[in-house]
Amino acid sequence: MPELRETIDQLDSDLIALLKLRFQCMEAAARIKSERSAVRDEERKAEVLENVKQLASNAGIPVPTMAAIWEMLIETSISYELEKWDQMRDS
């Protein structure tokens, strides 16, 4: 059991590192988009969710759970990007 817990802890660390990269992409997107309204893109959100559902299905992990996690991740990413967009233009 200790080895399994160590593996899980390492996976959590790896996931945080990957999420850091994702949020760096959100910051880059905030720099690129000239209009604040471009930050929320419902078509892209739907595309990402469909991609995640397919990836989860292919991986044999619970699709509804992964979709719910990604819904929260996307909404958090949008909020983060909006915050960064505002900060970059208020400076």
From TrEMBL:
Matches recorded under Pfam families: CM_2 (PF01817)
Presence of the UniProt keyword Ribonucleoprotein in the record: no
Enzyme class of the recorded protein, top EC level: isomerase
Alphabetical list of InterPro entries matching this protein: Chorismate_II_sf, Chorismate_mutase-related, CM_dom_sf, CM_II_prokaryot
Position of the signal peptide: none
Record-listed E.C. numbers: 5.4.99.5
Gene3D superfamilies: Chorismate mutase
Domain of life of the source: Bacteria
Keyword Lipid biosynthesis annotated: no
PROSITE patterns, alphabetized: CHORISMATE_MUT_2
Coiled coil ranges: 32-59
Positions of the Chorismate mutase domain: 1-85
Alphabetical UniProt keywords: Coiled coil, Isomerase
Record's protein name: chorismate mutase
The organism of origin for this protein: Parasphingorhabdus litoris
